[in-house]
């Protein structure tokens, strides 16, 4: 079933989706960046629950409650190991792992940040390519997801993701 893919600029904790995604390490401790913002607004309970479900292999994902946030869940994508480095494979696999969780948990809309582009140091254009390609490839298998959002923090990220989305 086709879904809508949208690119927005803003704060993922303010998303209008059913679930948000945290770009995480494979032990799920929440430091700075997106994880720090989610923990600050949603509370320590999100990190505590996530850490108890780890560790996992990079490229995998888990989900937790959303604490004080208004979402059905937070999906934590292990886009890097303890070395805090990522690559194409981890970004693609983690994106698909998040979509699989959303599908199985009957989530209608999901908001992703750009994976691995902060502390992971991955190039934004490469991230956009991997994530949008994965989202498009998952679409034929989707029954429950109606909308996939990429919620990006700045103009450069927005431009990279928009450019990739506009390529057919």
Estimated radius of gyration = 14 Å
Can you count the helices? 5
For the largest beta sheet, what order do the strands appear in spatially? Answer: 1-6-5-2-4-3
Query: Which descriptor suits the 3D outline?
Result: globular
Q: Into which percent range does the helicity of residues fall?
A: 25-40%
N/C terminus separation: 18 Å
What is the total domain count? 1
Main sheet makeup? 6 strands, mixed
- Find the CATH topology: Leucine Aminopeptidase, subunit E, domain 1
CATH architecture assignment name? 3-Layer(aba) Sandwich
Write out the CATH superfamily name: Leucine Aminopeptidase, subunit E, domain 1
CATH class wording: Alpha Beta
Low-confidence stretches: none
Helix/sheet category: alpha/beta
The counted number of beta strands is: 6
Calculate the mean pLDDT score and round it.
96
Task: Estimate the strand proportion.
Answer: 15-25%
Give structural notes:
By secondary structure, this protein is α/β, with parallel strands linked by helices. The protein has one domain (4-166): Leucine Aminopeptidase, subunit E, domain 1. Helices cover 38% and strands 21% of the residues. It is built from five helices and six strands. It has helices at residues 33-42, 44-53, 88-104, 124-138, 155-166, and strands spanning 4-9, 19-25, 61-64, 73-80, 109-112, 147-152. It has a six-stranded mixed sheet, sandwiched between helices. α3 (88-104) packs parallel to α4 and α4 packs across α5 (155-166). The chain is globular and about 40 Å long. It starts with a strand and ends with a helix. 49% of the residues are buried. The mean pLDDT is 96.
